[in-house]
Automatic annotation (TrEMBL):
Taxonomic lineage: Bacteria, Pseudomonadati, Bacteroidota, Cytophagia, Cytophagales
Keyword flag Ribosomal protein: no
Similarity field: Belongs to the purine/pyrimidine phosphoribosyltransferase family. PyrR subfamily.
Record-linked PANTHER family: BIFUNCTIONAL PROTEIN PYRR (PTHR11608)
Protein name: Pyrimidine operon attenuation protein/uracil phosphoribosyltransferase
Amino acid sequence: MSKKQLFDSQQLSITIERLCRQLIENHDSFEESVLIGIQPRGSFLAKRLHQRLQDITGKNILLGFLDITFFRDDFRRRSQPIQANRTQIDFVIEDKKVVLIDDVLYTGRTVRAALDAMIAFGRPQKVELLVLIDRKYSRDLPIQADYVGRRVSSLPTDRIVVQLCEQGFAADSIQLVSHDETK
C-alpha cells in the first residue's frame, strides 16, 4: 500500500480560499444562493467554506446539510445498514441557486441521490456542485463538478482519505491511498 499526500493544511487553506473566490465571482451577493453540504463528509467542508465566505463577504449566507441515506441506489444492497444522518435545511430552496458540497466526487451516485433528496425542499433555480477532490475517469453517471479543489487520476481500487480538523483530526490531510496489486 502506498500513500500520496494531496493536501496538507496549508495547501487546503489556499484551495478553500480559491474556491470561495470562485463562488463569490458567480454568486455576487449570495441573496439568492444557498450552500448545502452532503452528509456526512460534505458537511465539514461546507461549514468551512460557509465560515470563510461570510468572513470575506460580511453577508449572512444560508447553509444546510442534506442526508441522502434513503435516496441511495445501494441502500438495500449492503450487508450492513447505512447509518442515517440528520438533514438540517430550515429554508426553502425554491428558485434559489444551490451549491451542493461534498468532499470527493467519484461515481456520481452520491450526487444523484442528493439531487433526489433535495427536491423535497423545493425546485431550485440552478444547482452547482463543489467538490474538494474530483476522481477523474470513474463516473457511473454523467455528473461533473462546477468547482473543484483538485482533479486526481486514480484506479477503482484506490481510496481518497480526507481528514479535516472539524472531524477531530489534529491537522488537515488528504491522501490518495493505493493498494499494490502485484502482491
